[in-house]
Amino acid sequence: MWTRVLEKNQQRLQSETGARSNPWGGRLSVALVYPNNYHTAMSNLGYLTVYQLLNSREDCLCERFVLPDREDLPGCSAQGKGKLGSLESGRPLSDFDLIAFSISFEGDYLNLPLIFELGHLPLYARERSSHDPLVLCGGVCSFLNPEPLAEIMDAFAVGEAEMLLPPLMDLLQSSDETREHLLAQVRTLPGFYVPGQHQPGDAPVRRQWVPDLEGTASRSFIYSEQSEFSDMALTEISRGCGRGCRFCAAGFIYLPARERSLATLLPQVEEGLCHRTKLGLVGAAVSDYSDIDALSGAILERGGTLSVASLRLDSLGVEEIRALKASGHKTISLAPEAGSQRMRDLINKNLTEAQILSAAQLLAQEQIRNLKLYFLFGLPGEEQSDLDELVALCRKILHLWREAGRSQGQIGTLTVSLNPFIPKPFTPLQWAGMDELKALEKKSRFLRKCLDREPNFKLNIEPLRSAQIQALFSRGDRRVGQLLPLMHAGKNLKAACRELELELDELVHRTRDKDEAFPWEVIDNGVRRDYLWQEYRNALEGKLTPRCAPGCKRCGVCG
Hints:
By secondary structure, this protein is an alpha/beta fold.
C-alpha cells in the first residue's frame, strides 16, 4: 500500500506547477505537515504561504507531508515497515531538522496520533529522544488555544508566519545546542511558546502580527488540479476584520484589520492570471476592502474573472455583484448568522432584517441564480421565538427568490447552512457555554421539520457531535490532549472522557465566571480582557458596539 501512496505523490507532483523545494545538502530541513489529506492541504492558503516563505531562503529546504487518502490508510496503518514520506523526496519525518505542523481546525487534532504512528515517532514530547526532530505547531490553532496539544508539541508559533519564521530559522541555523538548550533559546524569541519550559506565573506569550502587509504576499504559489480552488489563483487582499462580531475568533485574533493597497495587489493579480483565468480574493470581509470595485474592474479589464471568499450584506454593491456575475458566479454566499434581531444584536452583527431582505432582493434582481445563507443556532439565551423568526426569515427570502426566478424564467435554489454556536477563545462569548447536545438536537429537529420540505430549498446542519468535539478542543486544557490516542484507538468521546475522568459539561457546556483563568491565557492576543468582558455584558444586554478602527484604543490592539 505504501507503493500506491508513493505513486500518487509522484503523480501529484508532476501535475503541479509553481512548486519549489530547495535541494538537500547543507540546508536546514523542515517537514511541513498538514494533518489532513492532499486535497485539503492544497486548499489552505496559509500552508502554501509558509511553504513558499521557507523555500525562498537559500539556507533552508521545506518539503510537504499530508495524510494518505482514506482508501489507502488501512494498508498503511497495518503495514509497519513503511513510513510516511514527504511529497517531494519521500524522505521520512525523522530525516528532518524541524517538523512544523500547520493546524487551522481543531477537528484535525484527531489525525495527529495517526501521523506520528505513520512517521514512527512518539506522540508525546516527553517520549521523544534528543535525536528526534523538534516539533513545532503553527497556524490559527496555535494562537487560539495551544494547551490541548501542549504535551505533544515542543513549541508553538504564536501569530503570523511572516514575523515568526525568519528569527526561528536564523536561530536553528546557528545553534548546535542539545534539544533542551535549543528549546530554551527558542523560548527567548518573541512569539514562541515552549510548554515544557513555561512555568506558572510566567508572562503570557505575546502574539506577533505583521504591522504592514505591503511588503508581503499571501497568494497561490503552487497550482494543483486536486484542490478545492483548482480553477483559480488565490490572493489575500486583507487580513483581520474590525466589525467585532462577538462569536468570531478570526475577527479578534487577527486584529488590527489591515489591507494591501491596490498598487501592491495588481502585480499579484497579473501573476495569478498567468496561471489561471479566475482570481480568488481572500479576506475576512472582501466586500469591505476599500478599493473592491477598482480591483474587480482591473481583473475584468485584464481578461480575468473573480471569486470571493466572503461578502458583507450591508456593503454589497451592484458593481460588485455584476463583476461576480460576469465571472460566471451562479451561487453567492451570505452570512446573516442569526434569524432574529435579538440574536443578531447579541452577536453584534449590526444587521437588520430589512438589510438582509434587501441584499437578497438585489442578488435576485441581478439574476444570481442560487443563494447560500449561513446561520448559527444555540446562541446564549436563545429561545423558541428566535428559532421561529429564523424560520420566518428563511421563508421570506425563499418567497422573494422564487418570485424573482419565476419572472426571469428560472427558479434557483436557496441553501441554508445551520451551525451550532461554539464559544471560542479570545472572543467576548468565551465566557458562554455551548448549548447542551440534547437542546441542540431538539432545535435541529424543529428546524428540519419547518424547512426541510420546502421546494427549491436545501438545508444543511453541521453534525452536532463533531461540533461538540471542536468545542472541547477549542476550550480545553492539557488534559484533553490525552483523549487523542484513546479516540484514535476507537473509543468515542464519552467513553474516552470517562476513562480519563473528564467532565464534558465542565469543559464545554458550563458558563464561566468573570475572573476565571482560561487555559488559553498562556497566550496574550493583545485584546484587553476587560474589553472582551464588557462586550460579553453588552451581548447579554443586546447592546451594539461600533466596529474597531485604527486608533480606536478600545480593544487594546487597534490603538
